[in-house]
Backbone:
């Protein structure tokens, strides 16, 4: 049972972004074959992190980091998943998945770089 229906609110503030999801490699005829990276265009609400949350994160969050809200799961394994939004690259650091109660998935996006430049 959902306590509140957030789908309409998430759709209202949603925007498109690119996501790169690496696939797992495997062994073929005894030799390891590296997995491919799959790129997809998805939609979700990407918001700035408020100052209170940054102060309470003990320095793990910055003003460059974002929050992502989606009505579906981003990926099963979030290791090395990259999100490109507004010309900036983010890694997916944290997932707050309680979709059975809220109807959405929330992720913390940590700033990595802008167009290939390393984070300062």
Residues:
């Amino acid at each position: 049972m959902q306590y509140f229906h957030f789908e309409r609110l998430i759709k209202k503030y949603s925007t498109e972004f690119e996501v790169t999801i690496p696939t797992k490699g495997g062994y073929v005829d005894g030799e390891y074959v590296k997995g491919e990276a799959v790129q997809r265009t998805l939609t979700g609400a990407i918001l700035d992190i408020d100052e209170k949350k940054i102060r309470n994160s003990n320095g793990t969050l910055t003003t460059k980091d974002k929050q992502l809200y989606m009505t579906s799961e981003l990926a099963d394994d979030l290791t090395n998943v990259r999100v490109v939004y507004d010309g900036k690259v983010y890694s997916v650091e944290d997932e707050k998945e309680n979709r059975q109660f809220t109807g959405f998935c929330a992720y913390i996006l940590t700033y990595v770089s802008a167009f290939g430049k390393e984070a300062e």
Remarks:
- The helical segments are 7-12, 51-55, 99-102.
